[in-house]
Specification:
The protein contains eight helices and 17 strands. The chain is α+β, with helices and mostly antiparallel strands. Strands 8, 9, 12, 13, 14, 15, 16 and 17 form an eight-stranded antiparallel β-sheet that branches.
């Protein structure tokens, strides 16, 4: 199946291109950004060799929907979505941290806990928890914002402030926005029969100094979801939770001897496996958005995107 794993556009007024792990961002006249969500799949900070059909469209449409559903509590960068894989927004200066918030002991936090550590990013995790238990209150565990190809690193609030990565005044706003977004996301997920387990947010500053939400929000790449039905029963029985997130890809990689460490080989992803990953992304879209996923025409994705973005730029 056709996927989009790289782009090479040349839009009018284009100043530069930033290629992230999954998105490619075009700077137009130092005014707006055209962000293309590719079908690349990243795990353990490594971009896997094959694209996942419809993944970029799914990420972009979920992020767009949640930007709309949270704009009353946190301002965001989004201006328009001229193509299923494209978001256009205000040029911002990103903060060099990602704000991770965790409501449950899962994923990275669970792996740290199992290793005997009780402090994560300067935050104490209580004793007596087992994997996927709910924290008494959600904890914020930031990471550094790594350059492409590098690993994000855990960092504490104290280290962020001590190193001047973010001013205290701005950091208090980032924490406030992070908690507000997680609360809203939790409520929306609950209405869909899901639990928003953990997620990450990225923020930036507009030219006029306003702090806004940027990039993506509440997508399967940035968030972990459990099905609410049967959650407590599964916990009581020490069973794995039924989840919708990228964690199933991470687990498959771990089972096949890959965690992004030096010298490890990325396991072969068969066409059949890639199709199951695509189906899981579609499943999450339909569950969290509550609508049927409409597959865009992927016969020539690059041509479609270029045409739609050019039309938008000409008419804005």
């Amino acid at each position: 199946m056709n996927t989009i794993t790289t782009t090479n556009f040349n839009f009018p007024g284009q100043k530069s291109v930033y290629r992230g792990k999954v998105r490619e961002v075009y700077n137009i006249n130092d005014d707006i950004l055209v962000m293309v969500a590719t079908d690349r799949l990243s795990a353990f900070d490594v971009v896997l060799p094959k694209g996942i059909p419809y993944k970029g469209q799914i990420l972009n449409q979920i992020a767009t929907k949640f930007m709309e559903l949270t704009s009353d509590i946190v301002p965001n960068w989004l201006v328009a979505t001229p193509d299923p894989n494209v978001a256009v927004g205000h040029l911002c200066e990103p903060f060099k941290v990602e704000m991770v918030i965790r409501g449950y002991l899962s994923g990275h936090a669970a792996r740290e806990y199992a290793a005997g550590r009780r402090i994560l990013c300067g935050v104490e995790m209580p004793e007596g928890l087992k994997e996927n238990d709910k924290f008494p209150t959600p904890i914020i565990t930031p990471t550094t914002k790594a350059d492409n190809g590098s690993h994000d690193e855990d960092i504490s609030r104290e280290a962020i402030l001590a190193n001047g990565i973010v001013t205290e005044e701005d950091y208090l706003i980032l924490e406030k926005y992070t908690r507000a977004l997680y609360q809203r996301g939790t409520e929306i997920a609950a209405s869909c029969g899901l639990i928003l387990v953990d997620t990450k947010y990225e923020f930036g500053k507009t030219k006029d100094g306003q702090i806004v939400l940027i990039d993506e929000i509440h997508t399967p790449d940035s968030s972990r979801y459990f099905y609410a039905e049967g959650y407590q029963e599964r916990q009581n029985n020490n069973e794995e939770q039924k989840q919708l997130s990228k964690e199933f890809v991470r687990r498959w990689l771990i089972e096949n001897g890959f965690q992004g460490k030096e010298g490890q080989q990325i396991p072969n992803m068969t066409d059949e496996y890639i199709e199951t990953v695509s189906e899981r992304y579609i499943e999450l879209f339909e569950n969290i958005i509550g609508e049927q996923f409409i597959k865009a025409d992927i016969s020539n994705i690059n041509e479609r995107i270029e045409k739609n973005v050019l039309s938008y730029l000409e008419n804005r």
